[in-house]
Design goal:
By secondary structure, the protein is α+β, with helices and mostly antiparallel strands. The protein has a domain of 81 residues: Thrombin, subunit H (Beta Barrel), CATH 2.40.10. Helix content is 18%, strand content 43%. It is built from 2 helices and 12 strands, in the order αββββββββββββα. The strands form 2 sheets. A 6-stranded antiparallel beta barrel has the order 1-2-3-6-5-4. It is globular, with a radius of gyration of 16 Å.
Length: 198
């Protein structure tokens, strides 16, 4: 395959992946803050960053423009994660990857940087086992990738080459994007479900 043909096929596949994940990406607003969120369960559970949804409630806007008021049912401030329930079913949930990413993998970030809805940035994983010390002095695993993020990307998904969520975009550090591994997000979702059932 010629280089030009390869690039065109890569562009087409990237577009297909983005079209597939976009219905699972939402906008989250709480107070004066704004970011993204990732639909984790079809019954209305959405994962975002704690700094995007620091209060008990947040407004969630879906790809079709519909906005619902959501309740934060679980949060992990040291790992900058929160789970919002919008109390409705039939949503288009993303597929979370359960295996770790590898250095050199192609990844794609989807979010709403600077108010641009469903903006896309691509890059590769530069480190799959970065451990950062948070403000509380707690070390936490992060995925580092050379993906351009901006305000509004926080809480959105970082997906792999077949569209599975490998991380939740959180911040930019040292010129690189930092994302929280999807395994931590899944753990918090399960904790929120257990708490709601208790």
């Amino acid at each position: 395959m010629a280089a030009q043909d390869y690039l065109q096929e890569l562009e087409r596949e990237t577009d297909r992946l983005v079209q597939r994940i976009a219905p699972s990406v939402v906008e989250v607003r709480a107070g004066h803050g704004q970011g993204a969120g990732t639909i984790w369960r079809a019954d209305g559970l959405i994962v975002t960053n704690h700094h995007v949804a620091p209060y008990d409630r947040a407004d969630v806007t879906f790809a079709d423009g519909k906005t619902l008021s959501g309740r934060v049912i679980a949060r992990d401030q040291p790992n900058d994660l929160a789970v919002i329930s919008v109390g409705t079913g039939g949503l288009r949930a993303a597929t979370a990857r359960t295996t770790p990413v590898r250095t050199g993998e192609l990844v794609i970030a989807v979010g709403h940087p600077f108010g641009v809805r469903y903006a896309v940035a691509t890059g590769i994983v530069s480190s799959a086992s970065v451990v950062m010390a948070g403000a509380e002095g707690i070390e936490r695993p992060m995925i580092r990738a050379d993906v351009a993020l901006g305000p509004g990307n926080s809480g959105g998904p970082l997906i792999d080459a077949i569209g599975r969520v490998v991380g939740i975009n959180a911040m930019v550090g040292g010129g690189m994007a930092l994302a929280i591994p999807s395994t931590l997000a899944e753990w918090l979702v399960q904790a929120g479900i257990a708490r709601a059932a208790a």
